[in-house]
Amino acid sequence: MSSTNRTNAAARHVSDYYVTPQLSIREFLKAFNEDFQVEHSIPIPITILDPCAGGDSTHEMAYPDAIQRYSGWTIKWIDTVDVRLDSRAQWKEDYLFRNFGNVHQYDMAITNPPFNIALDVIQKALAEVKAGGWVIMLLRLNFFGSQERSAWFQKNMPWACYVHSKRMKFTNTGGTDSIEYMHACWKVGEHPKFTSLRII
Fold first, then answer.
1. Domain range enclosing 167
2. For the chain, which terminus, N or C, has the lower number of CB atoms within 10 Å?
3. How does the average pLDDT of the chain come out, rounded?
């Protein structure tokens, strides 16, 4: 979703749904592959979770579709969750209350979380991805600018952040979003003091 019209996950409605642009995801995947050569740092085939997958009758789920099109990764499976009943997700429920049983079964979790539950989504994903795997979230750049989250970031700094130099145009909006975005990437089990920053 974009930075506008974000509500509590359980109260979201199809009219509030904003599709993450495929071009922006493709640009991120290209840069991420260049920097981390994911084929060598994550077991192949890769298992992926998209906890806020989206999709509807006229739109594919943005991240699963972009990953299959542009990542070049060998994929074992992509599990998808979304609270919206019209989503194309495998499980139509609130991710924050979803019990996966084996909590370390994924090599990567990647999504665009609703802003007001983003930290909750990140924390849960960090517990459900294997050590050495990746948690990747599309976030507003000013997600860092919060006293409430400051103490958490001191112990959970992302390994890298990819800032999108072009403002995103979310499907169904009239123009580009008014907020700068980044893909923040946590490597599970590693706690760098500083984050690496790349402009894409």
1. 9-199
2. C
3. 86
What's the full length of the chain, in residues? 200
**pLDDT mean over 52-60:** 91
User: Can you give the CATH number for the domain in which 76 is found?
Assistant: 3.40.50.150
Residue 149 within any structural domain of the chain: yes
Which H or E element spans position 197? strand 196-199
Identify the helix (H) or strand (E) that includes residue 185: strand 181-187
Whether 63 shows a pLDDT value over 80: the answer reads yes
Q: Which residues is 137 bridged to in the sheet?
A: 111, 184
- Sole residue written with tokens 């139509």: 92
Tell whether 4 is covered by a domain: no
pTM above 0.85, yes or no: yes
Helix (H) or strand (E) holding 75: strand 75-80
Q: 34: Cβ–Cβ under 8 A, 6 or more apart, which residues?
A: none
Cα distance between residue 197 and residue 63, in whole Å: 22
Of the pLDDT bands very low, low, confident and very high (cuts 50, 70, 90), residue 115 is: confident
Percent of the chain with pLDDT over 90: 66
* Residues pairing with 65 in the sheet: none
Q: Residue 43: helix, strand or coil by DSSP?
A: coil
Is 85 inside any structural domain?
Answer: yes
